[in-house]
Specification:
The chain has 11 helices and 9 strands. By secondary structure, it is of the alpha/beta class. α9 packs parallel to α11. The radius of gyration is 20 Å and the shape is globular. The relative contact order is 0.12.
Length: 289
């Protein structure tokens, strides 16, 4: 879906506004269409929301599409009514369509209720919301999802989709139907991820990371350390990530786009709570260097 939507909206020379760090597919396809990319940094100082007021006027003149993702990968931030109102006002003012990637919408913790962008007044007029079964139901790679929102954009997407592929294997579609009819499957995932965050975050803090439990997604986004206790100095998150995989067999995703950060995931394989504790203890030991 994210790859096809630029085909509905982008003409050569037009620009997509996309968050950095962020999922790159829509921006990549905009480039394929001879469009441009303008990155909106997600900084801690702005609570990991884009600063629309800092976009140059010459960029806004060419901007056609705004890609957002909340709950956010990788920061774990979630959308609020206030933020979505700001997005809608910005879109109306600049005649820009909004693509809200809601792949992690079902994965929120500690009482936070997911908020649909389309539930806010005016959103339906300026944008669409993309949903996926990959995250909530562990169906990554099965390529099942749906898009809702502005009727004109949906119609254009339908035309592109009809001329691009012919749908998924029917058994996969039936599995998706079953998943949507059994939301308790997602609840089980939520409980597992929340439990793992409650183990991982304190462990990270004990070894010096400024870690916080995210409001949504299954990622923990932490500032990258500048060095080790043994005296090794790091110049980037990428260097930290390379060190961890080589020296401690810990896999992380580095981001140096808006500050230096590491993304950790709680989707590791473990049969039960005892094994989860053992794995987190091993991770803690690996970081203590």
């Amino acid at each position: 879906i994210l790859a096809m939507l630029p085909l509905c909206l982008i003409n050569p020379g037009e620009i997509i506004l996309t968050t950095s760090p962020g999922y790159p597919v829509a921006a990549t396809y905009t480039q394929y269409l001879q469009g441009g990319i303008y990155n909106l940094p997600l900084c801690k100082e702005n609570n990991f929301y884009p600063a629309f007021s800092e976009i140059p006027s010459e960029i806004l003149y060419k901007a056609k599409l705004l890609y957002l993702n909340y709950p956010n990968n990788p920061t774990g931030q979630v959308g609020t009514v206030e933020f979505y109102k700001e997005v809608i006002e910005f879109a109306f003012k600049n005649n820009i369509f909004v693509m809200m990637d809601a792949a992690y919408a079902a994965l929120t913790f500690d009482g936070y209720q997911p908020l649909s962008f389309l539930s806010v007044d005016g959103a339906m007029e300026v944008g669409i919301e993309v949903h996926s079964l990959s995250k909530a139901f562990n169906m990554t790679g099965w390529r099942l999802g749906f898009v809702v929102g502005n009727p004109k954009i949906i119609k254009a997407y339908g035309t592109v989709k009809d001329n691009t592929d012919s749908g998924q294997f029917r058994a996969i579609q039936k599995a998706g139907i079953y998943a949507l009819q059994h939301p308790e499957l997602t609840q089980s995932n939520l409980e597992r991820y929340s439990r793992r965050f409650d183990l991982l975050v304190p462990a990270l803090r004990e070894v010096g990371f400024a870690a916080l439990k995210p409001k949504g997604s299954f990622y923990c986004y932490v500032p990258a350390p500048r060095g080790t206790r043994s005296g090794i100095i790091f110049n980037s998150a990428e260097e930290v990530s390379e060190f961890l995989i080589k020296e401690a067999l810990i896999s992380t995703m580095p981001w140096d786009d808006a500050g230096s950060y590491l993304r950790l995931s709680v989707t590791f394989e473990a049969d039960d709570y005892e094994e989860e504790k053992r794995i987190v203890a091993e991770v803690k030991k690996g970081y203590y260097r």
